[in-house]
Amino acid sequence: MRYGDKTAVDGLSLSVERGTITAVLGPNGAGKTTTLETCEGFRKPQSGTVRVLGLDPIAQRRELLPRIGVMLQAGGAWSGVRAVEMLRHMAALHAHPLPVELLVERLGLEECGSTPYRRLSGGQQQRLGLAMALIGRPELVFVDEPTAGMDPAARRTTWELLQELRDSGVTVVLTTHYLEEAERLADQVHVIDRGRVIASGSPFELTRSRGHATIRLVVTEPFPPDAPAGLQADLGPDTEVIAINEQSLLISGPADASTLAKVSAWCAHHGVLPESLTLGQRTLEDVFLQLTGRELEA
Ligand SMILES: Nc1ncnc2c1ncn2[C@@H]1O[C@H](COP(=O)(O)OP(=O)(O)OP(=O)(O)O)[C@@H](O)[C@H]1O
Questions:
Q1: What does residue 178 show for φ and ψ, rounded to 5 degrees?
Q2: Topology versus the membrane, per the UniProt entry (predicted)?
Q3: Which of 1, 2, 3 gets mutated to test ligand 1 (max ligand atoms within 8 A of its CB)?
Q4: Which is deepest, 103, 179, 222, 243, by most CB within 10 Å?
Q5: In whole angstroms, what is the distance from residue 245 CA to residue 247 CA?
Q6: CATH code, domain carrying 101
Q7: Domain check: are 194 and 219 in the same one?
């Protein structure tokens, strides 16, 4: 997918199993929305093939639309429309809609039933957007950054709802740049960067595949530029040392006493004092950093 001479999605390849939650995870501008909008039939790819429920999203749009639900990243409702009116209108467009009251209650939209769309808070607009995606009982829903701008309670409700949908056989494809969202919700995660898939797997597979543990070290003074390579040599090939910046390192591999002793000796050798040393299980953030050398949330 190109916009003028800018390539937004470049040879990206992924497939999604029915009845699962798939997260497309990546930093801002990675190409997540473009990928989803191409699957939804809103954008025509300049090359490549997209099939959704076996259908071509553009050539077979009329067949596909009644079977999918779409929650856009923003907008999708008229600015003056009230939440309940919008849902009733959407319900009228579908053959077997869910009861409007059910969605209003599940998504906590009671208090904004008579408020015009443009006056709803960001989180309320998101919840209405999700209700609009679900009202037609879709087999497959695309949700673009579903919990951006939501407060923690609304985020939990949304996660529960998406899990219930999956448990009832609905396929969910979501984009997110929240690691916690991908880790907690997704059966399958595709990490994308610069328009390409750079890693795919379950959260467990992705976080356990290249070493179980990570050590994050932050020191009080900048270390010499070649110092991380020295630590890498001391720790050996089972461990990977990545310089996040000139004062912090990510060390991925066995976090045992011998590794910790070598890390301390390295600090002493370079005359740097640890400000923090954190041991933990590897996260999707660490996976992204290892693959790209950059931080996902940066
Ligand atoms: N309509 C457009 N015209 C020109 N460039 C665009 C357009 N839409 C997206 N882009 C560019 O294409 C790239 C991918 O954008 P896209 O919105 O798909 O990324 P994203 O991963 O969804 O980002 P975000 O998390 O910020 O929503 C970005 O560099 C963006 O600036």
A1: -90, 115
A2: Peripheral membrane protein
A3: 3
A4: 103
A5: 5
A6: 3.40.50.300
A7: no
Q: Characterise 4 by phi-psi region: left (phi > 0), alpha (psi -120 to 50), beta (else).
A: left
Mark whether 128 and 255 lie in a shared domain. no
Do 189 and 203 touch, CB atoms closer than 8 A?
A: yes
How do residues 89-139 score in pLDDT, each as one tens digit? 999 999 999 999 999 998 888 888 788 999 998 888 989 999 999 999 999
Of the candidates 40, 101, 107, 114, the one whose C-alpha atom is nearest the C-alpha of residue 72 is 40
ipTM above 0.85, yes or no: yes
Ligand 1 atom with minimal separation from the 35 CA: 18
Residues 198 and 229 in one domain: no
d(CA 15, ligand 1 centre) in Å: 21
**Is residue 244 a part of any domain in this protein?**
yes
